[in-house]
Amino acid sequence: MLLIRNANVYAPEALGMKDILIANGKIIAIEGHIDAHAAITHEWNAQGRIVTPGFIDQHIHIIGAGGKHGFSSMTPELTLSEIIACGSTTVVGLLGTDGCTKNVRSLYSKAKALEQEGLSTYIFTGYYGLDPMYIMDTVQEDLLFIDKVIGCKIAISDIRSSYPTALELVRILREVMVGGMIASKKGILHLHLGALKSKMDLLFELVQDYEFPIQHISPTHVGRTKELFDEAIRFAKLGGMIDITTGASKYTAPYLAVLYALEQGVSIDKMTFSTDGNAGLDKRDDSGKVIGVTRAPIDANLKEVVDLIQKGGLSIEKAIRLVTVNPAVNLGLVNKGRIKVGCDADFCCFSENMELTDVFAKGVLMMEDKNALVKGNYEPENQPWHVK
């Protein structure tokens, strides 16, 4: 059992100074003061730091992506410590354009590896295209029989997509919803939005013409252009959740997009951040010429949340919703995104000026005073041939 003392808790609601008791990776008590007990094996003093739920990144390329400039432009797999350093304690991995050299089985394997190293991990089956890129034979079977599969990904309004029709999408949605229903999962169709002029037309057709429940439809990259974001605002006002990419595909700073959406009457509860981290991006010179490749940052959620607070003037309890409780609701993860009795003990600890200092994942202190305490098996410091 672990007792965290003197935590300034945002659950995400502001709870004030609290002690938090943890057993077997779960929160079992949150009180103003918890008396020491022989069963408590460890105490950790938060020293008044701001303590929030651990961040959820619902769109991150844990096995790499890219490849549009040849094999050497593919990005590598992510490591445990670089994910933890961003405050992300729960990640959802997915494929990108490439469903040939990368596949859902290798994605599942990486998710299991990160889980064994201490993170909470999930995956989306499928990829950009309509081809059956699954572990089992269908989307529904993946939802039913593969523990980590919580939804399916597909691309629309993009020249790299399969140009699916509304009828094709609604049939996939049916498999997602029914598979999730039987497996006690929410079931999400996660939709990559490209830059074509069709924008979100298909999604409005699904909701308005086919009357499909909007809570199972999860569009991402909605901040790619101003025109697309205005459609996303309309989608959110219909009751949908919109995902603003922080690491790539943005017409303006993501925190500014959130402020604009709030001005237009969108509820803070209908927006999420995700990084698209580790995607392959072009590196350009001042004239716009491509001069190389780089990786989409995986720490952009953290940066944009801090900017929402410090530059945008949003309260801590509202800003952190975009990376905690909102993605948890969107994905149907009932034990994530909250500091609440019964939930997983995932925490981010911040100084008063919102510097991330410490991270707990499932009750284990993974980073302390900005230093990683736990690293993956194949990170350099854990290799016998590594020379310090």
CATH topology of the largest domain: TIM Barrel
**What is the averaged pLDDT score?**
95
Secondary structural class: alpha/beta
CATH homologous superfamily identity of the largest domain: Metal-dependent hydrolases
Shape: globular
Largest sheet: 9 strands, mixed
Please tell me how large the radius of gyration is: 21 Å
The number of distinct helices, counting runs of at least 4 residues, comes to: 10
Span of the ends, CA to CA: 35 Å
What is the string of SSEs from the N terminus onward?
EEEEEEHEHEHEHEHEHEHEEEHHHEEEE
Reconstruct the topology from this structure:
Blueprint: E1 2-10, E2 14-23, E3 26-31, E4 42-45, E5 50-53, E6 55-60, H1 80-84, E7 88-93, H2 104-117, E8 120-126, H3 139-145, E9 149-156, H4 166-183, E10 188-193, H5 201-209, E11 217-220, H6 226-237, E12 242-245, H7 254-263, E13 271-274, E14 280-284, E15 290-295, H8 300-310, H9 316-319, H10 325-331, E16 347-350, E17 356-361, E18 364-368, E19 371-372
Parallel strand pairs: 1-4, 1-5, 6-7, 7-8, 8-9, 9-10, 10-11, 12-13
Antiparallel strand pairs: 1-2, 2-3, 5-16, 14-15, 16-17, 17-18, 18-19
Helix pairs in contact: 3-4, 4-5, 7-8
